[in-house]
Each structure stands twice: as structure tokens, then as C-alpha cells.
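Progress against Task 2.4 (sequence-to-structure conversion) is shown through the following example record, which the project officer requested during the mid-term review.
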Amino acid sequence: MTTNASTSSANGLISLALGLLAAALVFMALTGRDVPIVGNGAGVLLALGFIGIVMCTLSGIGPTQSALGWTHALTIIGSILGVMALLIVALPLLGVQLPLIADTRSAVLALAVIMLVKVGLMSVERFIA
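C-alpha cells generated for the chain above:
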């Protein structure tokens, strides 16, 4: 039991650090600045997608599914949002035009909103479980 508590705490801290990194990436992308190492546009979109997957693995679907089960509303909503996030990352990079997403800047904004909602769902799950 003690190992799970410390691992959960460490996962929360890592997710917090990744969330702050994601917020900085979104801010720099939306203000038109080049992000070091990643660049701008598609690189930021890929980096945000990777950060989101890692955050979800550490503090999202794994703990939520084990605490609430696959058929709980929060798990289902989080899964649907996760699929939407993956589509927002992958389809523009493949040249597919999504409705309401005109360019990579709007894709970054849409992905940031989905990530914020998923973090909110994760916080709700912490109060329920």
C-alpha cells in the first residue's frame, strides 16, 4: 500500500511538471514564438500530443479505470476526449482538414482545451474515488 501512495504522489508531480511544460508550449505557440527544439506548428502539436499521452498514462486512464471501472461515465468521457485529442494531433499532420480547425495554431488551441478538460476530469475522479 505504501508503494502505491508514493508512486501516485510521484506521478502527480510528474504530471504537474508536464502540465506546466504543456502550458508554456501552448502560450509560445499561440503568441507566434518559435519553441526551442520543437519549432512551431506541427512540432508543437506533436510535442503536446506526446505530453498528453504521458500525462494520461501517469494520472489519467490507468488510475481512473482501476478506481472506477471501464463503464463509469468519467472513464468513458475521458476515453472519448482522448480519441478526439489523438485525431486532432494526427489528422492535420496527415493533411486532413478538420471542421473548425483551419491550421495548426487552431489545432494547438483545440488540443489545449481538451487537455484542460481531461485534467479537470482527473481532478473530479480524485474526489470520487
